[in-house]
Design goal:
alpha/beta; 6 helices
């Protein structure tokens, strides 16, 4: 039932759902660009429409009753942002503790414009030894979905060039808030 409702919601929103089949038993899925709260709504609708079991972090303060029960049912994992670096280890532990596990996150780390992407997604994928699937929400063409799967090489700069090439023509809801696809200096 939820799958049909999600498909209807995407259709009514004018979205074309792309991809959805995941070959690997474990993968980290990045969703970019992330410029609006609406991104989460459409991403969850896509997840339900495609029948995907993708987990994601949400602020721990959102996990109050009844919202917490709903978030957990949708794949939400509470995250306390106050503990630096804990998110990476929490995600890696989740990958290591499951035979099959898909985890999604926005590499910008926020809806607002930043000078660069955060490196957490890269560190998670490398430590968990999982591929990265390039997810996208393209408001310019009203397409949402999963793009190619990339096995990271360990050369962060080279891998980011490959990732950036995919997102070159993808437009966020608020293009003025789209963060440049690069890592902070020194990484």
């Amino acid at each position: 039932m939820l799958r049909h409702v999600a498909r209807l919601l995407l259709r009514l929103g004018g979205w074309s759902a792309v991809g959805g089949g995941i070959a690997a038993p474990k993968a980290l899925i990045i969703a970019a660009p992330h410029t609006s709260n609406w991104d989460a709504v459409w991403a969850l609708a896509y997840r339900a429409a495609k029948g995907l079991d993708i987990h994601f972090f949400a602020k721990h303060s959102l996990f109050w009753f009844p919202l917490g029960s709903i978030l957990r049912a949708l794949g939400g994992i509470p995250l306390d942002r106050g503990s630096a670096g804990s998110a990476v280890m929490q995600a890696v532990d989740a990958f290591n503790g499951n035979e099959s596990f898909y985890f999604g996150l926005a590499p910008e780390g926020t809806r607002g414009r930043r000078s660069h992407w955060k490196t957490g997604f890269y560190r998670i994928a490398m430590k968990a030894r999982v591929p990265v699937i390039l997810g996208f929400i393209d408001y310019g063409n009203k397409r949402i979905g999963l793009g190619p799967t990339i096995d990271l090489s360990g050369d962060m700069a080279a891998d980011l060039v490959r990732i950036a090439a995919f997102y070159d023509d993808i437009e966020g809801r608020r293009p003025d808030k789209t963060s440049p696809i690069r890592f902070p200096p020194g990484n």
